[in-house]
Specification:
5-stranded antiparallel β-sheet; alpha+beta
Length: 799
């Protein structure tokens, strides 16, 4: 697809700081993993942000990898005709990519339109002003002549669009800042011109479309808040919808749009009927944590498509309800673009053969005049033609299909089309499984012992008693594979060592870790003269300090506490192993344990032990953390946590530090959590199964380097990539303080751990009797007797 760049007949000028280009994201975002030299950036920043110029590099062939080049040369079958993506998730490969230098007025040239059954775009014409061309064939569908416009002197072109009938519409602004919409390809007798009575955006709209006598525009107001304006072209009066960041229209006047809340954390997908002036429906799009819809596209004959901003996931949705029907495509899984560009900046279209088209614009500021390049990628669904004798099928046994593993399978299959996967599951989701986890765990244990499982098994989080299972030989030893892993030194050692048995075997792989740690107020500690070895801090030392502060009635607290914090839970887990004596018996009546529980009882309700954070207060707000020493935290929500950590320091003029959770009284290890996978011994495809698991823990094995939002990764290189990408995406840069805290976080992960999941049955056996003692339902002796009986019974059943 080579198009003309001829622009001799272009007369419209582009007004300063108004529309030098459409940006579907409404702003400029730097690419993820590139460093750019952008001269004159300071001088041009206001104009760049307003115009939505995309700052990308110019010296690359984006998206074309060696792998894709190989795929293009093989004999795989390109799917065409009657295919049904609702029944099967197809593989996609790059069919064609282009990089075309564009003229100055380029803002409309990468938006996709649907006209007469064709996916099309506007292009500079050879002998006319503009042509509407089919994206695949280049066939000219319409021609548009500039002389049909009622141009006035110094008119500025702010927008161009084509409706479903192929009618061209323009948005213009004159020297008096009067805005008007008119059709640009009709003879003067059929001319439609509408002056807009109110234009709520300081710059050109990011999106512009017309249906019959209605024009819809999306952009930002003076404060940068996104909005959508719906104009009646008979009166010129708008109806403005706040916090709308994307929309599309269907041929019947259905207006679909994504409306975010004021915090930007949640959104609703909505549909309005323009002909009836009513809302038809609204629905929660049910996206992954941290994801949001960024683009919408309607393809008559198929329906509504939405695209997410972080992973470029394209879902087909029911136009009558907004509910997701199926996922068609994921730019993160199906392309090699993730390391090159932000999907946030792309527009997309889907043609009638289910080919996915992606496009973005970049501007090189080092040329005079600036050089604008339009990149386009066409991805086609295909079936790999592999000899059945060369095909390997891996069965994954898990309670439910795990989303990050599903995505990894898609990426792995692009590189290894000879490997096929099938899921052996009992539930459709994590939520459905949680209601039946114990029952499923019992059934899976029996299946595992009988050898009735797949080639890859979800170990932790599946209801299994992993501690007992991994001490047997029903799971294959992965230590040999790990020793030969090319990035072995990039893996966090402590969780692997916890899984190492006495015979040196490692029978599970902790793909992702959900860490527990403390946020420590170093400033307050210095003021109090505390001189602790924070790596060796125990619960008894903390309880002693609480008792001291309580006796002195000091206005300070050990812990800043939320409603969900359960310090007793953590204290008991830290000391659980030492309740079992060397001879295998359980003695919860040991003096140190009795004293510890009594200590906790004496301080549990005092203000010196914990300071609650109110429902309307954040822990990083001014004055909240200044007189508290610790806060317990779990998880790795990088996008928010490190910003909140720095805000807390700034708002309270304190220095914070991330430290390990307290140790048990006679323990050198700490409780941790991880999502572990393994290979059952009965598998006949161990090498292939390991090859896939090794891919998952590589630095390219998970979409956005994320398993779940609350987890960090076993691979430190991949985890660092996620940290940098999320902070850079949100802030534009990472501060020295955030880097310091991330290093502290990684240091916490290296401390020895006692286990990667909680022992089955411990809560009822140990926690509940102690809790009953604290609420006077049991005496301490009665609680100890119950613990001894209950916990002994559980340990004996495992031996």
């Amino acid at each position: 697809m080579k198009y003309s760049n001829k622009n001799d007949n272009i007369k419209l000028t582009c007004r300063k700081n108004i529309a030098v280009g459409f940006d579907p994201g409404g702003g400029s975002v730097m690419p993820k993993k590139k460093v750019f030299q952008v001269t004159a950036l300071v001088l041009l920043l206001a104009g760049i942000l307003a115009a939505g110029i995309l700052l990308l590099t110019q010296d690359r062939n984006l998206g074309r990898s060696e792998h894709q080049a190989d795929l293009s040369a093989n004999t795989d079958e390109v799917l065409s005709g009657d295919i049904d993506p609702s029944k099967e998730r197809y593989l996609f490969r790059l069919a064609e990519d282009t990089a075309e230098v564009r003229r100055e007025n380029y803002q409309y040239e990468f938006v996709f339109f649907w006209v007469d059954g064709h996916l099309a775009r506007l292009e500079p014409g050879e002998d006319v002003w503009l042509e509407l061309r089919d994206c695949s064939s280049g066939e000219v569908l319409r021609e548009y002549r500039q002389e049909y416009l009622s141009l006035q002197q110094e008119d500025s072109l702010l927008g161009l669009t084509v409706d479903y009938n192929g009618q061209l519409w323009v948005l213009l602004c004159n020297a008096e800042s009067e805005y008007r919409v008119e059709n640009g390809d009709m003879l003067q007798a059929d001319k439609v011109t509408c002056y807009l009575s109110d234009y709520p955006m300081p710059f050109a709209p990011s999106a512009f479309f017309v249906w019959e006598n209605v024009a819809v525009m999306q952009g930002n107001d003076e404060s940068g808040v996104p909005l959508m304006a719906v104009y009646d072209l008979e009166t010129g009066k708008p109806t403005v919808f706040q916090n709308v960041d994307s929309f599309c229209l269907d041929p019947e006047g259905g207006l679909y749009y994504n409306q975010i809340d004021s915090s930007g954390s949640t959104s609703l997908l909505r549909k309005r009927s323009l002909s009836e002036n009513r809302e038809d429906w609204q629905v929660n799009p049910k996206l992954e944590d941290g994801e949001s819809i960024r683009q919408l596209f309607f393809q008559p004959g198929i329906g509504l498509f939405t695209m997410t901003q972080d992973t470029g996931q394209i879902d087909c949705r029911d136009s009558e309800s907004g509910e997701k029907l199926y996922m068609l495509f994921s730019a993160a899984e199906d392309t090699d673009l993730a390391d090159e560009v932000n999907f946030y900046q792309m527009v997309f279209g889907v043609d009638k053969a289910f080919h996915v088209w992606l496009s973005l614009l970049e501007t090189d500021f080092n040329t005079t005049p600036f050089t604008h390049t339009r990149y386009t990628w066409e991805y086609e669904p295909y079936l790999s033609q592999i000899d059945p004798e060369d095909t390997v099928t891996l069965t994954i046994t898990a309670p439910y299909p795990v989303d990050p593993i599903v995505s990894s399978i898609q990426m792995y299959t692009r590189q290894h089309p000879e490997v096929q996967f099938q899921w052996d599951t009992a539930y459709t989701s994590r939520e459905a499984f949680r209601e039946h986890s114990s029952q499923y765990g019992e059934q899976l244990t029996l299946r595992l012992m009988a050898g009735d499982v797949g080639d890859i098994l979800m170990v932790n989080g599946s209801g299994l008693d992993a501690g007992a299972i991994l001490q047997t030989d029903v799971m294959a030893d992965l230590s040999v594979y790990l020793d030969e892993c090319p990035f072995r030194n990039d893996l966090i050692q402590s969780p692997l060592e916890e899984l190492r048995e006495e015979d040196d075997s490692i029978r599970a792989l902790p793909v992702a870790i959900q860490p527990n740690y403390l946020i420590y107020n170093e400033t307050l500690a210095d003021q109090l003269g505390l001189n602790w070895d924070l790596d060796q801090l125990t619960w008894s030392k903390i309880l002693d300090l609480a008792a001291e502060w309580q006796s002195e009635n000091l206005d300070i607290s050990l812990f800043l506490s939320s409603v969900s914090d359960d310090f007793l839970y953590s204290l008991l887990l830290a000391n659980l192993d030492t309740l079992e004596l060397e001879d295998g018996t359980v003695d919860a009546g040991q003096e140190w344990f009795r004293n510890l529980i009594q200590q906790y009882r004496s301080v549990q309700g005092c203000s010196q032990w914990k300071k609650p954070v109110g429902d309307e207060t954040f822990w990083w707000s001014p004055g909240v953390f200044s007189n508290a020493l610790f806060m317990s935290y779990a998880g790795a929500d990088y996008e928010n946590f490190f910003n909140h950590l720095q805000l807390c320091e700034e708002n309270n003029s304190i220095s914070l530090r991330l430290i390990p959770i307290p140790l048990g009284e006679e323990s050198e290890k700490r409780q941790s959590y991880a999502f572990c996978w393994g290979i059952p011994t009965v598998s006949e495809q161990k090498d292939t199964a390991w090859d896939f698991l090794e891919f998952v823990i590589s630095d390219d094995g998970l979409v956005s380097d994320t398993y779940f939002a609350e987890t960090c990764l076993l691979n430190q290189t991949a985890d660092r990539q996620r940290f940098e990408e999320e902070l850079t995406h949100v802030n534009g840069a990472i501060t020295d303080e955030q880097n310091r805290h991330y290093e502290e976080f990684q240091s916490v992960l290296e401390h020895p751990v006692s286990r990667l999941m909680e022992p089955v049955g411990w809560y009822n056996a140990v926690y509940q009797p102690v809790s009953a003692y604290l609420t006077d339902e049991l005496s301490l002796d009665e609680a100890i007797r119950q613990i001894n009986e209950n916990w002994s019974s559980i340990l004996q059943s495992k031996s």
